[in-house]
UniProtKB/TrEMBL annotation:
This is Pyridine nucleotide-disulfide oxidoreductase RclA. It holds the Pfam family Pyr_redox_2. Signal peptide: none annotated. The keyword Flavoprotein applies.
Amino acid sequence: MSEQYDAVVIGSGEGGKFLAWDLAKAGQRVAVVERRWIGGSCPNTNCLPSKNEIWSAEIAHLARNAGRYGVETGPVRVDMRRVVERKRAMVAGLVDMHLDKYRDSGAELVMGSARFTGPKTVAVALNAGGERVLTADTIVLNLGTRPAVPGVPGLREAEPLTNIEALELDALPDHLIVLGGGYVGLELAQAYRRFGSAVTVIERGDRIAGREDPDVADELARLLAAEGITLLTGTEVVRVRGRSGDAVEVAVRSGEGEGVVAGSHILVAAGRTPNTDGIGLDRAGVAVTERGTIQVDDRLATTAPGVWAIGECAGSPAFTHASADDYRVVRDALRGGPRSTAGRLMPYCLFTDPPLARVGASETEARAGGAEIRVARLPMRAVLRTRTTGLTDGFMKAVIGPDDRILGFAMLGTDAGEVMAAVQVAMLAGLPYTALRDAILAHPTTAEGLNALFAAVPPR
């Protein structure tokens, strides 16, 4: 027999769990179906665990370079078992926090795998055995994505690491080969280099961080190479032999010819695949795009009445904060509010050291759009705060429109994410760049560099 709910959320990731808690606190009967990761991938396998281990790697890096600051440390050794234990302890605490949230809100957490059997009807194969059938007038799909493994001959047989397995390694790879020069690949490449592994990054595109302006990507590449990371760009992986964890050989092809990269482990960081297959979306009347994401409008409504989608599975940007805003969009849509995904100003950060942060249009995007723009750039060494810390690498850059509004901001440098937030607020408020140019900003902070950056905007 089916059980009737007011709302059923499939997947307990960021947007879905917040919506479930919100609806349950409002008195609705709500169930959240989750296959494995309570709270979604962010607190379990992706955002927070990776930043946890990246921070351990940064501590190792600081310890090795303590002599620059007049501090003697002696030899530095990384115990990967303790690194992983620290990360696992954090994850366990986050899971407990989520369970408390479910209890406090009244939303029911159902552990199992869901599939549609018809419109607004979901069968759940319970992890503990048995099955439940749930029906609801409102169903929210918060399905997430999984790491994509390209169809390179021999790659699957090599049993490569994804970000999930890489964050569980309790022994240091001798030589980690990373396939992909995007966010995940670069963050983990630098972390494992700082832990002590040899690292090679293989990127098919002409540059790492391919969505960034050439000057940003080139500076990031220079900094990573200076740490001893080998970057092979414009390079295609032809085949893979061996087994990750033992020994692997990656045959590659580039404009310079063919070659082989030998290593101990291989990490695939080549994009994500939506978890939209195998749950019977067609039975519910939910259409998907050619990319496999769920087809939605700007209020995240699917093609099936009463069914909504949130997060990466809906084609939203692959960030936890994007999913959190998706929650607000669906919440307001259910209440008849006007909020939508149209025109969202979406920030993002790459947590390398130094970090990269950007919001709004890049210089490349702005010029392609035909806008009359001005570009200001400031090296981080010109920010006096960096003279006190010695963290002078990188630069900040702003793109200014013809009406003096800020079209975009990028920063590769210490505290980039925090500084970006200040610029984002100015952009949301529609302030002219002169507001930040003339603002009284505390000295000596990294954000104080915004005075000098916007003072460097060329005249019309």
